[in-house]
Design a protein that fits this description.
heterodimer; A: about 110 residues; alpha+beta; Helix Hairpins; TATA box binding Protein, subunit D, domain 2; four-stranded antiparallel β-sheet; 2 helices; 4 strands; about 40% strand; elongated; disordered C terminus; B: about 800 residues; mainly alpha; Leucine-rich Repeat Variant; 41 helices; about 75% helix
Amino acid sequence: MSYQLYRNTTLGHTLQESLDELIQCGQITPQLALKVLLQFDKAINNALASRVKNRIQVKGKLNTYRFCDNVWTFVLNNCEFREVHEFAKVDKVKIVACTDFIQLGYRSLHTAEV
Amino acid sequence: MDVQKCLLLLESLRVLPEEFFSANLTQYKRSVLRHELTKGLPDVLELLKELMNPNSPADVYDHSLRCFSSWVEFGVPLMEGEPVIVQVFNSLHNEALFDTAVDTLVNVFSHPDAHRFPYTIQKLLPHVLQLQTMFQKASEASNMDICQGLSQIIVAVAENHTKLIVESSICQEEGRRQNSMNLLQMVLACSSLPGHYPVDENSSNMPFTFWYLLQDDILASDAEKYRLLLPLYQPVFFSLIEILLIKVQYPPEEEYETWTAEEKEQFRCYRQDIGDTMMYSFSILREPLLGHLCSVLAGAVENSKITDLRWQVIEGIFFLFGSVAESVDLEENAYLPTLLSLLPKIPCSNVKFISTALYMIGSFGEWINCHPESLTSVIPLILQGLGNAEVATAATMSLKDVTRENLDHIQPYVNQIFTASKNALDGNILKARERIRLMSALGQVLSVLPFDDIMQYLNTLLTPVIQELGQLVKQEPTPAVRANISLKLNMLSWMVASLDTDRPTSENMEGQKQQEVKLDQPKPVFLVMQQVAPIVQELLSKWMNDASIVELVCELFKRSLRTLMDDFAPMATDTAQMLIQMYQTVPHAVILDLSKQLILLFSTDERFFSTLKVLLNSLCDKTLELYQKGLQNYTDVIEGFMNLMAQVLKKTKPLLADGTYNIPGLFQAGVQALALPEQHTVKAACSFLNEFLSVGSELPALKQVVNSDGHLLVDRILRAIGGESPRGVVDSLSDVLNALNKFYVEQTSKCMNDIIQTEGYPSNRVTLSDKEYFVKMVLRERGNKRKHREIVKEFALKCRGLYGTEYAAQISAIV
């Protein structure tokens, strides 16, 4: 069972809109649409965990923090993102992170809604 | 033994628990199935125990292992599975079974229920510890497959049972204490595999999570337990630091050059993980860690007098120092002064070494602010870096960090910073990003000076930039000219953003006295913009159609507006006219954004009221023209326009009050924008319409339009809810419907009741009865936003044939 938080991304939303349209046209059933979404969850979790190796440092002023049902939610103000030579600053960032219990020996947090 | 039958049986048994997870069953059937499988578990375990013996054929043993692994995932109480688990450990010594055995043991120790069997884990620990000899032999023979497999098992145990390890290390039983400490030594051995990650070995990264969890559990202990744990674990973490000091080092240069780009990137991420682990270690070891690093550094420097200095060693130490910089107490003055004073004495010209040293200096920016005497040694080092193309990135970043944190103390160094920066800018060594970053740092630095000094420096610095911009503007547009213009605009933009002379400092009281004397003096940024503005006008005449240039121009003005605030006033009229001209030529969202800032800041100033009215009128008229050309081609502009109008209605109503605007046209524009597929545009239109409906109750011109054209809005919303718009905007649409209910309840009620009589409207999946119920509920719950949204969402699902489906329920949870 993979995390579903990536459905709330541009890619996830676009997929859902497409599936909605196909259901409305009667071309697929809601059950098939659900299977597609579950496969999307698996694929994107796997891709982010295994194919993305970048590291970015995030530094900012912690406005709020919340931990519930193994999900951390942070809101940072005046946030800096740093990756080697790249540097970006934003006024406000919300980070939603779920702990990855599945992978061993490699600390990773699934994040979305950054 | 009939091997074939055996294999078939094992395969069937293996698949059973897998099917349990993948089959589509009701809750009730699933629990019945679980019960049956659990009942059969002892028989399965008994069979596997029999088959997993040294006399069994390799195939049978292998299938037995896989079968057991499958049942472990289903859920095998550890104490019941213990005999089989012991056999799995034994099978590690069989090369053909090694990989399967590793996977099985990892599953056993990392299963979420394993923590419920601490006693069994303790009993199994000696079997893990016995792997030490095997691990050592594999490490010496550079057998990375074995090392990786055994590391996986060791880390699986340690990482998933950290609390148990910590508790055991201070328990009464000597045996348990010893086992815990021995396991820690094994994890250290995993971290210290010889060679460079990821080329020579690929397992030393596995324990990083464990080290984090360990320090977390130690720090989370109560005071009494913490007092017992600290002396036990400090030596462990010191051993870890010794290991990290080696593992963080770059390989010899000729070897590093043979690595692929992928390997170099993996190594960079690995070093980042080492940095994070250092940070966690610091929370346990505190200042003595700094002392340790200092003595290692001093030793390395001392040794360099006898043998050649290996830059990798010192670079590694600097990297580790930089990793803990954020955590060091700002009052620390035992070790860091020694470190910073050693810096200039270390001879090395290697690029990576210098870059890391500069990054390290930058990371101590905040600490330096509490120890400003350090600036004497670090500023010259940073400025030296500016003159070296290969380390300029690190130098500019470090300068920016140090100056940002040390504005209270930077004044004595302004001249040398400025001179070195100017030389770097005049030379051809800095890349575009570095030039822009340097301007930002210089803006910060100059902001602490008296007015006359600022202007003197600015004239020297910016005159060539502005002159070059003026010359570029006269040239014919080409990609090279565009790139240069973009660079100049960016440099100016970052300068005006950081040159904030009103920034509060700890010496503000004294500074403020100086400022009060010169209140009638314009701000330096204003004077810069006065020079730049005519050139920008000329620039726009040639580059008005270039979106990237228009963006940069707007960004420049936006930043100067943010820095100057009310002091921007003398430029407001000309800027408004510039925006009108720009938007008339090529409508662009960034123009609307800047217009919004300008309007919100100056709309209450009588001097600019009429100018801003003209600006707003012009933006409205031009945007409404776009609708004739096909609004789907301008969704970003429409989004920006809707956001602008929402803010204007919310905060500057008087601007719209006199009725000279095309209010019906604006209302229609909002209604039509609801039909667009882009969610952000629809949400912006909903914001605008919400404000329109709310303000309409006070402004007759708006109210009249709603009364005459409100039915168009109701129709648009219902059709959108009914399926013409994505579900992601249904909540926003619900809020607009709620606003209609709140402020125009009679009209809305009549309109909705009329419109739903049409068959098949807004969807042929809902009956008249469904629609009537929906309208009744919507009208009843007016004012209750949350309830209103639920009702609308339910109706939207019914219209789309999704009501009651699992698919819709899952999406609703996210949207």
